[in-house]
Design brief:
The chain has a seven-stranded mixed beta sheet, with helices on both faces. It has a five-stranded mixed beta sheet with strand order 7-9-8-11-12, with helices on both faces. It contains twelve helices and twelve strands. It starts with a helix and ends with a helix. With about 300 residues, the protein is an alpha/beta fold.
């Protein structure tokens, strides 16, 4: 099942068992929300295509004692409503969970306007905010638990092509922010979302660190990469301000010298001016899986 639908199925079950949850939507639905809208019509509010209002209404309901999940189409809850995210969530610490369909280039068929490739970089500039990129169903399930058990200002990106389970529920910790798989190696590959999901499936002779929740616990991250001589960061988003920048900041602030190779979207020839697809963009930007695998294996060979 897709990670978005896993999350909303869990939210449905929690509401049915008595949790005081309200979903506020900016004119977007999902097959996994059909039962929710039918069985809890007073707990599903559609504010229309109005992302700023989405954040304001959600914040008011949260302050009234509800557990609120806001739901919108990426990139708009960030790009159109950044002022509300900044003031209501980051500054006032109103613990709503903002969920958004689409991450990175998964909506490339709709053109650049609908690709949330800068969202992670923008949201990293804010304090007191958790950024979650579920890379498997276990993370999506645990996220629904967190809505009820650990209210916190959260922004969640659901990649519509991610499904399947990679991790055990007990290994997921949103405060720690990352989980490690792969092999012991002096090379660490750091990724999130679809890139982490894909890289975890490759039998690479490296350590793969999935940063599914930002910010990560920096000291634990440092312990994880201790002994590494090279870090490769891979993201389906702009390289500027993304996970590669995060790794460089953590290392630089501590005076740790480890070579970092950043792989991300750069668009040196300008933004796409045609309707395209994810695979073509990845090939053009050097992010296709075959190319990444070959590059990482070459690094391993020295």
């Amino acid at each position: 099942m897709k990670v978005r639908d896993v999350f909303f199925h869990e939210i449905y079950k929690k509401t049915k068992h008595g949790e005081d949850i309200v979903i506020v939507s900016s004119d977007i639905g999902a097959p996994s929300l059909d039962d929710y809208r039918r069985d809890f019509p007073n707990r599903f509010i559609n504010v229309g295509i109005a992302e700023q209002n989405l954040l304001a209404v959600s914040s008011g309901l949260q302050l009234a004692g509800k557990k609120v999940v806001a739901y919108a189409l990426n990139p708009f809850p960030v790009t159109r409503a950044f002022d509300q995210v900044r003031n209501l969530m980051a500054s006032l610490q109103i613990p709503i969970t903002v969920t958004a369909l689409n991450a990175g280039t998964c909506s490339a068929e709709a053109g650049y306007t609908h690709m949330p490739i800068e969202n992670l970089s923008l949201m990293r500039t804010l304090r007191n905010l958790q950024i979650v990129n579920p890379s498997d169903e276990a993370i999506a399930r645990k996220l629904a638990d967190a809505v009820v058990e650990e209210p916190y200002p959260r922004y969640v990106q659901f990649d519509k092509y991610i499904e399947g389970t990679l991790y055990a529920a007990e290994d997921i910790n949103f405060r720690k922010g990352f989980i490690t798989n792969g092999k012991e190696s002096t090379i660490a590959v750091v990724a999130y979302g679809i890139m982490a999901h894909q890289l975890m499936k490759l039998d690479l002779p490296v350590k793969v660190i999935d940063c599914y929740s930002l910010p990560v616990q920096e000291e634990e991250f440092i312990q994880e990469i201790e002994g590494c001589t090279k870090i490769v960061t891979v993201e389906d988003g702009v390289a500027d301000g993304g996970i590669g920048s995060m790794a460089l900041e953590i290392l630089n602030d501590r005076g740790i010298q480890i070579s970092v190779v950043r792989k991300g979207l750069r668009f040196r020839q300008g933004y796409p001016n045609i309707f395209t697809n994810r695979e073509l963009l990845w090939q053009e930007e050097g992010l296709d899986l075959l190319g990444l695998e070959q590059e990482i294996r070459k690094l391993c060979e020295g």
